[in-house]
Design brief:
mainly beta, 25-stranded parallel β-sheet, about 0% helix
């Protein structure tokens, strides 16, 4: 094991394959300035970070063959580089509940073979970069995702929410969001493709958009919260299955929605606006709309 003590800075540059555990203590700094690929291969805790890791340069980080990166007890990963994070052959990232991964560029998080896993108990933040970070890796736990700059687009993979999850400003552009238990707060999200399945609780807050994709509410509860707005538009296919409550404002301006056991309830004090020509079309079985609001 290589240990970076509190107050020390350890620099690694160039294409390196890590073949031993690397421990960054609280107060220590690991500086990874890369112009080629830095690889963590077959090391169960390749990097265990309790301090600060700074990633810069154009090189990528490849975590492969069950190798891993662990952020714990307030550890911070600052990703300023332009290279991607590649999780292949069961490579994984674990960010615990008081730790931060801060994306400060438009890097992608990907798993081309579909076996990589990202477990986020803490915060995944995009604080800089005006473009798009494309995420195609499975999230075994979503935690908190906070987009303050540019876009984080979950375009593939499955996101499992767990007990509590928060997606702020993210785009769901093809992935499956599985609200299997607990509560997921979707604040100002863009739902453009893919599937949201709800067997826990899904609350839309802020101002969100739905332009495509399927919202499948099974044994759970989905709603637009009081004070929130959901804008529905676009001609891409949209499916609503199960109950959906509106306690805020829904503005449906374009495109049809296919309903399968859809049960829309516009609650007292809420507004649901439908433009001329939009339709809730039964896909297989009858759907209902109950209006207690406006």
């Amino acid at each position: 094991t290589i240990e970076v003590k509190s107050g020390a800075t350890f620099n690694i540059s160039g294409g390196v394959t890590l073949g031993a555990n690397l421990l960054v203590d609280s107060g220590g700094t690991l500086d990874l300035t890369q112009t080629s690929t830095f690889t963590i291969d077959a090391v169960s805790e390749g990097i265990a970070n309790y301090g600060t890791v700074v990633w810069s340069g154009s090189g990528s980080m490849a975590i492969t063959n069950y190798g891993g990166y662990f952020n714990s007890l307030g550890g911070t990963l600052q990703w300023t580089g332009t290279g991607n994070l590649d999780l292949e052959d069961h490579g994984w990232v674990y960010n615990d509940d008081v730790s931060l991964i801060d994306l400060q560029s438009d890097t992608d998080i990907q798993s081309t073979d579909g076996t990589g896993e990202f477990h986020n108990d803490g915060m995944l933040q995009k604080s800089a970069g005006s473009g798009t970070t494309d995420v195609t890796v499975n999230f075994t736990y979503v935690g908190t995702v906070d987009v303050d700059s540019g876009t984080i687009d979950f375009s593939a993979g499955t996101l499992t929410t767990g007990a509590n999850a928060s997606l702020q400003g993210a785009e769901l552009g093809g992935a499956t969001l599985d609200v299997s238990t607990g509560t997921c707060t979707a604040e100002s999200v863009a739902f453009s493709s893919g599937t949201i399945t709800v067997n826990g609780t899904l609350n839309f807050t802020g101002t969100s958009t739905w332009t495509g994709g399927s919202l499948d509410v099974g044994s759970g509860y989905a709603n637009v919260a009081s004070g929130a707005t959901l804008n529905i538009s676009g001609t891409a296919a949209k499916l609503l299955a199960g109950p959906f409550d509106n306690d805020g404002a829904v503005d449906w301006t374009q495109g049809n929605i296919s309903g399968s056991y859809a049960a829309i309830d516009n609650e007292s004090g809420a507004t649901f606006t439908m433009a001329d020509g939009v339709n809730l079309v039964d896909a297989a079985v009858s759907s209902t709309f109950v209006n207690d609001g406006t």
